[in-house]
Amino acid sequence: MGKISRKKLDAVTELRRKGCFSDVAERLPRSAVDERPMEKTVGLDRMYLKVLRCIQDEQLGIIGLYGMGGAGKTTLMTKVNNEFFKTSMDFEVAVWVVVSRPANLGKVQEVIRNKLKIPDDTWRNRSEEDEKAVEIFNVLKGKRFVILLDDVWERLDLQKVGIPCPNSQNKSKVLLTTRSLDVCRHMEAQESIKVECLTQAEAITLFKKKVGETTLNSHPHIPILAEKAAEECKGLPLALVTTGRAMTGKNTPQEWERAIQMLKTYPSKFSGMGDHVFPILKFNYDNLPNDTIKACFLYLAMFPEDYKIRRLNLIILWLGEGLLDEFTSIDEAFNQGHGIIEHLKAACLFESDKYDQVKMHDVIRDMALWLATEHRGNKSRVLVEEEVDYVEPHQILRWKEAQQMFLSTSSLKELTAPPPFPNLSTLIFSNQVLATLPSGLFHFMPLIKVLDLSRTKITELPVGIGGLITLQYLNLSGTKLRELPAELKTLKRIRCLVLAEMPWLRRICKEVISNLSMMRYFTIKPNYLFDEKAYHLPKEEEEDHKMIYLWEDSEALLEELEGLKHIEWICSPISGVLSLKKLLSSQKLQNALRYTGFRYLEDVTLLRLPRMKHLQFLRIFRCRELQDIKVDDKHGFAADYIPNSSFYSLQNVRVHHLPKLLNLTWLVYIPCLEDLEAMDCESLKEVISETRNLVSDNLAYSPDSKF
């Protein structure tokens, strides 16, 4: 046995002498996909499957994930990286790059280069970014790759980085996360997926997970309180995680109730919100392109939680506040206003709602209020006072410091001596039962620009409103006012006067409208369902020659509007034959009219509509003798050239209570008509007459038209 062992040892020694054994094992090749740290996710499964479907679609090369800060975009892309790309055999290399702001092309190239293992000596010899791009391109062009770009704030030129264009031929992908839909568009993403907040059930699950079972089981009331606390976060994962962690170890119901109250009233004081959540969300605000858009964003924050406002109404408020002053034309201002709303929606700072409304996510609103108040060192700069039974003295003291106020309380009786408002620029009331305002309320508001009383039931304006000489916007819609008093003559800076849905308004003192010399926007929309004949004023009141009576004939009102130098937007009914004649004789009124209703045109059998290029809504009703309607073609209208139409902006037409109307053939001259309603027109047998000599083949109706 010894001899055999000796021989084997000698053989091994000889082999070691002859061989080279410096490397006895090779390192395993680096994985094509690096798994990234990630906790178990909550509520992302639906979004995950949606992203997978896009990745598996060969026609989609660039895919964008966008959403508000803290919504879970990076978590979702991490889940895709770890659970799909890590196990998929379809891709040869996946590179994760955190881009952030400002984007640094050199750093992006360096991350990709490290993953691709481009040798150091080769890389050092490429001193210019375009040379490095060539090196990256030559490696990637032969591979099926995935580039995951996290936290993109602006367009990153893939060609300058060296990334080949992903397409159906190379079957490669670029996946990016951003807070802005516009970035997805600028990156030319073929598919943009919005990462939404969690549902209520998902939010509660995530919140309770962060709180922990020990805390949840410490008292029988805490699970219910936890659900209430989670509700304050409105499904935003960042807020849910932050507040959930902060509530760990809070084992008494009193601690939870105090925390919930703090989240409702002073969320910035809650642990982690003011120093973590809000600064993260603030990046979206900081990235807005100019101060005008920033101011328009903050403006919506003064409305209560979950408040929805129509786009048009918000833009008019901006106009009255002076936020759109850079435009000489009101149409340019409105276009800019719509553009601002779209930009804020794309930045996930505004959200769309039904009926053409917009709103703010509650946590975004909390951040905006924090920005507008505490972040600027004035906690009372913006005040939103909800309904209370009694206004406390300390609240009234805060009012003195406010610049913007939204009041929904109906309890103002204790304001026997209203405080001064030296800094107030915006005051909005919102209470459906508030019938009176305290006397002297308007006595000291030297800087007021916007006054909105539209959500009240006041029957008269308090004395002193005429002293608001800085006022630029006044909204009295929906109130029970019977007249506009002569005191309003002094409000010469008014730009926007809104008098919509005011069935009780019968008269306006003469020369009130004509004295509002800066007015650009005027709306008076009676409630057409209101039976005005049953509510006529007594005979002796009708003899007051100092009044304009709105139900009789609006000729006097139109005359005063026509005399205004800056008027560009009018919404007003045309009541009676004299009003019609006034409209027909005034090019200025025709150009300014946007919404109108022709009514009580006694003995008129043929209505020839003048050119009204900005008219959007038209209603014709209670004209008992009207048989035919024609459009004015004096201005060179050619039926085969739609842009010359006299009614290019008209989209909605209503015809009601026209018993002798025969047809609506004139509608062929309305190229953008979307909505037509005809009611109580007994003689109407056809909409478009086939006997007329029309070139209807050249006219195109919108596919969305409703008849």
Outline the fold blueprint:
Layout: H1 2-18, H2 45-56, E1 62-66, H3 73-85, E2 93-100, H4 105-116, H5 120-124, H6 129-140, E3 145-152, H7 158-161, E4 173-178, H8 181-186, E5 191-194, H9 200-211, H10 213-216, H11 222-231, H12 237-246, H13 253-265, H14 273-286, H15 291-299, E6 309-310, H16 311-321, H17 330-346, E7 351-353, E8 357-359, H18 362-372, E9 382-385, H19 393-399, E10 404-407, E11 426-430, E12 450-455, E13 473-475, E14 483-484, E15 496-500, E16 507-509, H20 512-515, E17 521-525, H21 539-542, E18 547-549, H22 555-562, E19 569-571, E20 574-575, H23 577-584, H24 587-592, E21 593-599, E22 606-609, E23 617-621, E24 628-631, E25 652-656, E26 675-679
Description:
With 707 residues, this protein is an alpha/beta fold. The protein contains 24 helices and 26 strands. The strands form 5 sheets. Strands 9, 10, 11, 12, 13, 15, 17, 19, 20, 21, 23, 25 and 26 form a 13-stranded parallel beta sheet that branches. Strands 2-3-4-1-5 form a 5-stranded parallel beta sheet. Strand 3 (145-152), helix 7 (158-161) and strand 4 form a beta-alpha-beta unit. The longest helix is centred in the N-terminal third of the chain and has 17 residues, at 2-18. It is elongated. Mean pLDDT is 87; it is low at 528-537, 635-643 and 691-707.
